[in-house]
């Protein structure tokens, strides 16, 4: 792997834990034993580094999840395995970074949006239904965040089971989920702080 490739892989690993704002030329130089000018020469500016990191993470994601093809459950299974194996130490790079940049217009957000649009488009083609694609993406992201936050790999099997149920459910027959009222959530939150 060339030095630019090594820089981008490390940048994606850092971003999966600390977000893209945690990726700095100085930090990469220290962690990779390079000079700041050596890292800077590959990108020129932090925003360029962040965008290149998004593209590098997309290539890794595609190789891990998409390239092998298959049916919806095959792709979802590879997505869950990609997160579970911690290809990126903080879980799915895109679950972390799309939250970080969702409300921040600019070129980095545009790069993340383009990736996400392509991902959702793939899910829609595999599902044949935009609503189901949205739900599948939400379930996958939930598995990643729950497993990372609670260090609980059982989230992957629970989501795998939920996906099997949802994928076989006829469109228009979606389940409704009962949620606790706001006061019970607030009560629980204040008792845990």
Polypeptide structure, described:
This protein is mainly α and 193 residues long. The chain has one domain (3-173): Tetracycline Repressor, domain 2, CATH 1.10.357. The chain has ten helices and no strands. Helix 1 crosses helix 4 (46-66), helix 2 crosses helix 3 and helix 5 runs antiparallel to helix 9. The longest helix has 21 residues, at 46-66. The model has no long low-confidence stretch (mean pLDDT 91).
Compact overview of the structure:
This protein is mainly alpha-helical and 193 residues long.
Write the layout of secondary structure elements.
Elements: H1 3-18, H2 25-32, H3 36-43, H4 46-66, H5 72-84, H6 93-101, H7 107-127, H8 130-150, H9 154-168, H10 182-192
Helix pairs in contact: 1-4, 1-6, 2-3, 4-5, 4-7, 5-8, 5-9, 6-7, 7-8, 8-9
The low-pLDDT segments are none
Distance between the termini: 46 Å
Structural class: mainly alpha
Looking at the structure, the CATH topology is Tetracycline Repressor, domain 2
Number of strands: 0
How many structural domains are formed by the residues? 1
Q: Would you state the CATH class?
A: Mainly Alpha
Provide the gyration radius in Å: 19 Å
Strand content: under 5%
Per CATH, the superfamily is Tetracycline Repressor, domain 2
Arithmetic mean pLDDT: 91
- What's the CATH architecture? Orthogonal Bundle
Largest sheet data: none
- DSSP helix fraction: over 70%
What is the number of helical segments per DSSP (H or I, 4+ residues)?
10
**Structural shape:** elongated
The secondary-structure element order is HHHHHHHHHH
């Amino acid at each position: 792997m060339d030095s630019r490739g090594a820089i981008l892989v490390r940048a994606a690993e850092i971003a999966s834990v600390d977000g893209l704002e945690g990726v700095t030329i100085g930090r990469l130089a220290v962690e990779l034993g390079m000079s700041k000018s050596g890292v800077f020469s590959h990108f020129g500016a932090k925003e360029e580094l962040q965008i290149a990191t998004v593209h590098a993470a997309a290539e890794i994601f595609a190789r891990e999840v998409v390239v092998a093809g298959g049916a919806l459950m095959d792709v979802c299974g590879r997505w869950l395995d990609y997160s579970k194996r911690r290809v990126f130490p903080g879980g799915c790079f895109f679950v972390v970074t799309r939250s970080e940049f969702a409300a921040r217009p600019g070129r980095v957000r545009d790069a993340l949006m383009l990736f996400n649009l392509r991902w959702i488009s793939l899910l829609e083609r595999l599902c044949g239904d935009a609503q189901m694609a949205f739900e599948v993406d939400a379930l996958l992201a939930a598995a990643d965040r729950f497993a990372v936050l609670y260090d609980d790999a059982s989230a992957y099997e629970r989501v795998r089971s939920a996906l099997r149920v949802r994928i076989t459910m006829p469109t228009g027959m979606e389940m409704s989920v009962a949620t606790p009222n706001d006061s019970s959530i607030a009560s629980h939150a204040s008792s845990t702080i």
